[in-house]
Specification:
Elements (H helix, E strand, L loop, with lengths): L8 H15 L1 H6 L4 H12 L1 H8 L14 H11 L3 H16 L1 H4 L5 H12 L2 H5 L2 H16 L13 H45 L11 H12 L6 H15 L4 H18 L9
């Protein structure tokens, strides 16, 4: 029986990739000629066995070295969300997971984990965070966007879907904040008008008044507003707007369009009663 020819395509491809990783001057420059970085890249390209064979064995994994999955993130949040001290440590841990190249290189779908992290940092964690924790979250997200080291030597988040998700979350937060401010202003104006009308009626009826007329429901609503998350502090709003501005100047036309559209919506909400020349 004639022996079947061996499939040499996989070894040849492997050799070609290894040669490229080892000897290409542009790769050497990008990875700072570090074989550990080459090994991490090879892990995602051809798997752990090939990476270890050509660039050395991986060290034993510590519990925090990854891989980190979206489910891991969700479980951590459930355990720490409502405890202020645990929440502070949680925020630091999530930012570390999102920005550490060693952890991200352990998982070829790490972008899904980073999406989960950015969604939760600007979602349930944000709405339970203290002012100091808000600042930590924003600083961490800025570092993710512009300073996160990658295995390829570049800086900043490279995944389009992670960047898009972060941008959409920031825009949504700014819009929620602005709508709250506008609605609160309208409610306060309506309340002042109501008090003014009641006083006029009292005057017509010959009644005396010494204090504004506010019913108990209005007082309760006012007290509740003080405890609401919104409106955000001006410095927080400014930093969130800086993140949107970062995308306005980015090299992706799609992200630029989303950022500009978000700023246009904010402008429209901030000036709801502005009339155009046609009006």
């Amino acid at each position: 029986m004639e022996a079947k020819p061996k499939n040499k395509s996989a070894p040849l491809f492997e050799k070609a990739v290894v040669a490229w990783m080892k000897y290409d001057p542009f790769v050497a420059l990008a990875v700072q000629n570090d074989n550990l970085v080459r090994r991490d890249i090879m892990l995602n390209l051809l798997g752990a066995e090939v990476a270890s064979r050509h660039f050395g064995a991986f060290p034993p994994r510590r519990p925090g070295d990854g891989p980190i999955y979206p489910e891991t993130v969700r479980n951590e949040i459930l355990a720490a969300l409502h405890d202020p001290n645990k929440r502070t440590r949680l925020i630091a841990k999530l930012i570390f997971w999102a920005t550490d190249p060693r952890i991200n290189n352990r998982n070829d779908k790490s972008h899904l984990t980073r999406m989960q992290i950015t969604s939760d940092l600007l979602g349930p964690i944000w709405f339970n965070a203290t002012l100091k924790q808000e600042e930590t979250i924003i600083l961490g997200l800025k570092f993710l966007l512009a300073g996160k080291p990658t295995a390829g030597g570049s800086r900043g988040e490279q995944s389009y879907i992670v960047r898009k998700n972060l941008l959409m979350k920031v825009i949504d937060l700014l819009i929620q904040n602005q709508k709250f401010i506008i609605n609160k202003t309208i409610k306060e104006t309506e309340e002042k008008m109501r008090v003014h009308l009641l006083r006029q009626i009292q005057q017509l009826q010959g009644e005396k008044h010494t204090t504004p007329v506010f019913d108990s429901e209005t007082r309760l609503k006012t007290h509740k507003l003080v405890k609401e998350k919104f409106p955000l502090r001006r410095d927080i709003v400014k930093q969130l707007e800086e993140i949107v501005a970062f995308f306005v100047a980015c090299n992706s036309p799609y992200l630029r369009a989303i950022a500009k559209d978000g700023l246009a919506k904010l402008k429209e909400i901030r000036h709801p009663f502005t009339l155009t020349a046609k009006d």
